[in-house]
Specification:
By secondary structure, this protein is of the alpha+beta class. It is built from three helices and three strands. Strands 1-2-3 form a three-stranded antiparallel sheet, covered by helices on one side. Strand 2 and strand 3 form a beta hairpin.
Length: 72
């Protein structure tokens, strides 16, 4: 399964639970979430990882270490 496949699945899942959702949304923050959904009680942000090294590399990104720099 590719990263694109996972992002498409995430967007469909979010659309079933949120008022609206976006995939690979460009933001003013440094972060570009793979999929993000918005609803009345908050947001759901999904990051898709296709490998363990990719997952661990994500933990070192500046907006993961300093959450106020990211989207969610």
């Amino acid at each position: 399964m590719t990263h694109t496949d996972l992002v498409d699945i995430a967007e469909k899942w979010l659309l079933s639970r949120c008022g609206f959702a976006f995939k690979e949304l460009t933001t003013f923050a440094q972060e570009t979430p793979d999929a993000i959904g918005f609803r009345m009680d908050g947001t759901i942000l999904i990051e898709c990882k296709t490998s363990r090294p990719y997952f661990h590399a994500d933990k070192r990104k500046s907006f993961r270490l300093n959450p106020w720099q990211g989207v969610g």
